[in-house]
Specification:
By secondary structure, the chain is of the alpha+beta class. 54% of the residues lie in helices and 15% in strands. The chain has five helices and four strands. The protein has helices spanning 2-13, 21-29, 44-56, 67-73, 87-98; strands at residues 17-19, 35-38, 60-63, 81-84. α1 packs across α4, α1 (2-13) runs antiparallel to α5 (87-98) and α2 packs parallel to α3. The longest helix is centred in the middle third of the chain and has 13 residues, at 44-56.
């Protein structure tokens, strides 16, 4: 888990992340986001809204950690949804999360 959080921090410093439900939704619609990370403690409504959007626009998504862990990883407050805008970061994050 620490490898994933460290890599999320790196992606955040590289400005390759978008956080927050509204900004991630807009990013998906504008085809700027290649991977969505949803916290495991997201509400059912948020989870359904984001995953439906991802399916509609063919964007990959994974569930990882809780809102506090995601926020701490990127140096911000609790975050439920994070969008990754870079395909290289996306591929590496998917590798790390699937381990």
């Amino acid at each position: 888990m620490t490898r994933v959080t460290q890599f999320l921090g790196l992606a955040s410093r590289a400005r390759k992340l978008v956080t927050g439900e509204e900004l991630v939704t807009k990013g998906i619609q504008n085809r700027k986001i290649v991977l969505v990370i949803i916290s495991q403690d997201a509400s059912e409504n948020t989870f359904k809204k984001i995953t439906d959007k991802c399916k509609t626009y063919n964007v990959g998504w994974v569930q990882f950690g809780d809102r506090d862990l995601l926020g701490q990883a990127i140096g911000k407050g609790p975050r439920v949804v994070i969008g990754v805008t870079d395909s290289g970061f996306s591929a590496r994050l998917q590798q790390l999360i699937s381990k």
